[in-house]
Write a structure and sequence with these properties.
The chain has eight helices and no strands. About 20% of the residues have low confidence. The chain has a domain of about 90 residues. Helix 4 packs antiparallel against helix 6. It is mostly helical and about 200 residues long.
């Protein structure tokens, strides 16, 4: 009798799943993944293939905020080159008009004003390129520029219709405010004339 009860208990379901089945059901639960997929096995019994890299990850369309960083560095280099070139030309022209500097360095008068400007712009371009390269090589500056560009890329820019609607609202509000101030000025002038007389 005791043996029969023991066999019946083994046959009755206890309501608990085996540990392996429970883990396989939990691993894909809520993710829309079948247990076989969650464990990494495929239908053919072999190991699943690793995901492939995104195609075209290095193309300009996929650079994201990095293209803005590069554009900013190029723009800064051009600005530095232009300003430095103008400063070099201005200093050269000033020294060329100073008699003591001309006596000390007679080569200052070797070039005309047009040639000085060209040489100054070339010197400014070299200084601009060197400045940008040296700045770009500094890790903390590049990291800061990447963070700024990343934050700017999160900005939601308005579309054309929104900009047009906002512009119309501002123009109409400005016209109403102008008319109101003009009428108030006329009214105040009329009241002042009544009180103080013409």
């Amino acid at each position: 009798m005791a043996t029969k009860l023991k066999e019946d208990e083994e046959r009755e379901p206890t309501g608990e799943e085996p540990a392996d089945d429970a883990l396989s059901n939990v691993s894909g639960a809520g993710l829309g993944i079948e247990p076989a997929q969650a464990e990494g096995s495929s239908n053919d019994g072999g190991a699943s293939e690793p995901p492939t890299e995104t195609e075209g990850a290095g193309t300009p369309a996929h650079l994201g905020a990095t293209k803005y960083v590069h554009a900013a560095f190029i723009g800064a280099g051009m600005l530095v080159a232009y300003i430095t070139g103008k400063i070099v030309t201005l200093l050269w022209n000033s020294f060329a008009e100073w008699p003591a500097a001309v006596r000390a360095v007679p080569q200052l008068l070797s070039y005309g004003e047009g040639e000085r400007e060209t040489i100054g712009l070339v010197a400014g371009a070299l200084i601009g390129v060197i400045t940008v390269i040296q700045t770009y090589r500094k890790e903390h500056i590049r990291r800061w520029a990447d963070e700024v560009a990343g934050e700017l890329s999160k900005v939601t820019w308005p579309n054309r219709e929104t900009v047009m609607n906002g512009t119309v609202v501002v123009v109409i509000a400005s016209m109403i405010a102008t008319a109101y101030v003009a009428l108030l000025d006329k009214f105040w002038g009329f009241v002042t004339n009544l009180v103080y007389g013409a």
